[in-house]
């Protein structure tokens, strides 16, 4: 009887862990990224969300653009390219002599990575 109880408790814990893992995976938002015109590369802009946006925010912080600290999320799946991020991208683009339009095209992303 004791062995049966132990087996049932372990099975119950494993099932609970599985359900929690599956439910968290199902509740994570689906990433959304914009594509550049005539390209397979991403051009991150306002409204995009996901890990690439989180990486962009981290890069902006790394190069000294501090006004996006509040946009950094504990879970990178929840990072959103907000107006604040757009303004930070523009600020960086001005310092890097890139057209300051607030869209993180490959040239902007590479410049951020280089500066970090």
From TrEMBL:
Ranges where the Peptidoglycan binding-like domain occurs: 76-112
Signal sequence, renumbered to the chain: none
InterPro entries, alphabetized: Peptidoglycan-bd-like, PGBD-like_sf, PGBDSf
SUPFAM superfamilies for the chain: PGBD-like
Listed name of the protein: Peptidoglycan-binding protein
Biological source species: Anabaena sphaerica FACHB-251
């Amino acid at each position: 009887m004791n062995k049966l109880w132990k087996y049932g408790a372990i099975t119950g814990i494993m099932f609970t862990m599985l359900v929690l893992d599956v439910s968290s995976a199902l509740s994570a938002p689906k990433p959304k990224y914009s594509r550049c015109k005539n390209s397979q590369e991403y051009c991150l802009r306002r409204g995009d969300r996901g890990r690439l946006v989180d990486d962009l925010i981290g890069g902006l912080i790394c190069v000294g653009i501090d006004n996006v600290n509040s946009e950094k999320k504990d879970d990178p799946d929840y990072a959103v390219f907000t107006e604040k991020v757009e303004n930070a991208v523009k600020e960086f683009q001005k310092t890097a002599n890139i057209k300051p339009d607030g869209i993180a095209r490959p040239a902007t992303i590479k410049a951020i990575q280089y500066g970090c």
